[in-house]
Design brief:
Layout: H1 6-50, H2 52-60, H3 63-141
Helix pairs in contact: 1-3, 2-3
Length: 142
Amino acid sequence: MTRAGLPDLVRAFQAKSLAERAAVQPLLDAEAVLRRELERLSDHEKAARSDLTALVRLGAHGGDVIWEAWLDRQRKKLNSQLARVLAEKVEAMHALRQSEGQRAAAEKLLEMERMAARKAGQAGQDRERQEIAAQRFYSARL
């Protein structure tokens, strides 16, 4: 890696980091939707259990068993989808952390390179000043 290519490397890692971040966002959104759906399902279950007359009416026709089976199927389906999304999110977050680390390292290298260049420029200026001062000193003595 040449010094001239360092800014390009930083830009490449910044772009990669943005792409990884963009890949994570839909997973976070899907996770939030599934968690809300699970919460809504639990709320329906609590509401139905608190309404005793509806429960008795359902039980008289076997509807309570059917409703419980439906509730279990829905919960299993949502939990399965949530598990899949969470697994994908773990992988995406790992890739995001890795790309963020690469970006930070490249930016640090670029900053160190710029500081070294400034120091080298400052040292060159100091040498020039010393040479000018020495020339003036010796010319004044002659």
